[in-house]
Amino acid sequence: MIQQIYPAPIHSYRYELNKDMHVAAAHYIDDERAGRCQRVHGHTYFINLTIVGDALDETGFLVNFSKLKQAVHGRFDHRLLNEDTLFETAPPSTEKMAETIYKVVQEQLDTCPNRPLCIQVYVRETPTSYVVYRPKEHARG
Ligand SMILES: Nc1nc2c(c(=O)[nH]1)N=C([C@H](O)[C@H](O)COP(=O)(O)OP(=O)(O)OP(=O)(O)O)CN2
Ligand SMILES: [Zn+2]
């Protein structure tokens, strides 16, 4: 069972949904300043998505939990992250991973008529290292 403590963002939307998931993936940081992380290695990332909105869809969902899992897990699980076109311009650091997950998720949410928003992505890479990404403003696509 996944259970983690992560920060709760402040907002005034009526609904807040959180989706946890694990993604097993390999990566490397192609820069000598990254030390041993230059070598290909793997992590089981723990990811938490925070989605908010004021309206539900016809099924009573803010967004289907499985859609969120498909967008993230479906794309990155059991992959070498560096091979993904989303990491063509910047290496898959935890920070970039969190930002990239935000973009992938918000793109999916932009197709929903009830217009939910992703306001926080939490990515834990190791037991001692995690990043929280929050978009500057709750931008609508
Ligand atoms: N700001 C960042 N620093 C580092 C990143 C990163 O993505 N952003 N990544 C790495 C490595 O990829 C590594 O996988 C994780 O590093 P680290 O937490 O140092 O790993 P350890 O398990 O060895 O941590 P300890 O707390 O020392 O056990 C490096 N830096
Ligand atoms: Zn790593």
UniProtKB/TrEMBL annotation:
Reaction(s) catalysed by this chain's protein: 7,8-dihydroneopterin 3'-triphosphate + H2O = 6-carboxy-5,6,7,8-tetrahydropterin + triphosphate + acetaldehyde + 2 H(+)
Keyword Lyase: yes
InterPro entries: 6-PTP_synth/QueD, 6-PTP_synth/QueD_sf
Active-site residues annotated for this sequence: C37 (proton acceptor), H78 (charge relay system), E125 (charge relay system)
Listed SUPFAM superfamilies: Tetrahydrobiopterin biosynthesis enzymes-like
MF annotations from Gene Ontology: 6-carboxytetrahydropterin synthase activity; metal ion binding
Residues noted as binding Zn(2+) in the record, renumbered to the chain: H27, H41, H43
Pathway(s) it belongs to: Purine metabolism; 7-cyano-7-deazaguanine biosynthesis
Cofactors required: Zn(2+)
One of the Pfam families matching this protein, by short name: PTPS
The keyword Methyltransferase is annotated on this UniProt entry: no
Domain of life where this protein originates: Bacteria
GO BP annotation list: tRNA queuosine(34) biosynthetic process
Annotated EC: 4.-.-.-
Cofactor note: Binds 1 zinc ion per subunit.
Keywords: Lyase, Metal-binding, Queuosine biosynthesis, Zinc
Family annotation (NCBIfam families): queuosine_QueD (TIGR03367)
Family, as annotated: Belongs to the PTPS family. QueD subfamily.
Cited PANTHER family: 6-PYRUVOYL TETRAHYDROBIOPTERIN SYNTHASE, PYRUVOYL TETRAHYDROBIOPTERIN SYNTHASE
Protein name per UniProt: 6-carboxy-5,6,7,8-tetrahydropterin synthase
Lineage: Bacteria, Bacillati, Bacillota, Bacilli, Bacillales
Underlying gene: queD
